Amino acid sequence: MENPSLPPYWQDYIHSLKNATNKHPDQIRFIVLDTETTGFNLRKDRILSIGALVLQNKEIKVNEAMEVFIDQETFDASTVKIHGILKNGKAKRITEIDGLKKLLKLLESSVLVAHHAFFDVGMINEALNRNGLPDLKNKTLDTALLYKKVAPKSELTRKRYTLDFLADTFKISKADRHTALGDAYITALAFLRITNRIKPKSFKDLETKKRFIWF
Q: How do 140-142 and 30-37 pair as beta strands?
């Protein structure tokens, strides 16, 4: 049972998830997201940016896209060459809790999709916990795991299915690679390619034995 002392926006988020998957997959509201961070340590590192796209009825709803930059004291200059986010850059930043509120609102009534979701969900959960909130409750799909459902037998022995690998496999442009919204877009297109091959009749057709896969 959820703690009634938690803020109203959390209660709204929780209550919205009740019937999120009780419909045909085309009607499910998927939120495809990615985070850019100061590093890969879930406890010590911080989220610098969150990019998220709404995908429903096999369409990416571009007008509902979310991209936020988070103001953080923690920063590792060595990672700038990956994500391009400068500590004192021009991008407008908001507080971590305000970023989480925007994300929770977007995640209402939705299934979460990410590539190597363990990391993105883990970073978001750490941020939620720092701000006195529980972990995310959305059903979650990992495109690295989903790809194994449709991969040729020759690829099933691969140890890693990177986002670059999926982009190359499905001939998706990597022009905006390593931005949160750009990676969310690549993930969304890969998800569409994979689900077009699976042709799911229900959400169960998209579930995998594992919930997450690490790098």
A: unpaired
